[in-house]
Amino acid sequence: MLFFSFSNLINFLKFNKIRFWAKTFKKVIKKDVDRSDFKTNEEYNIFIIYSLFSFLEILWILFGLATNSLHHWVVFLTLLFLNIIMRLIYKYSNFFITNLFGFIFSLLKFSTILIIILNYFHFQQDILNLLR
Question: Which terminus of the chain has a smaller tally of CB atoms within 10 A, N or C?
Fold first, then answer.
């Protein structure tokens, strides 16, 4: 998951441009974007890979909610809540705002996943008690 999150962070601006173009394309043409509508295969691959990684992150968050530890619940519910807010921002705001908040959210998500992994394998601290 850390690799997926880091990859999404690195390609965020490229993907956001492609997503904004696809949103505009759908609004104007009134049909979903097809593979042949992309300028290059690279753009299509970025769009598909980023979408797949985002789907895997959501599955990971839902899987994390299935754990029985309270501090995992708090972290994963926060990530899920932020994901929902970001979807609303993407849907109803302009390109600059989605770039700004989207990058901050991607950076926050990457940092959170990194902390969770480091804590699980190395530190083994109760994160919820540390935050209190």
Answer: C
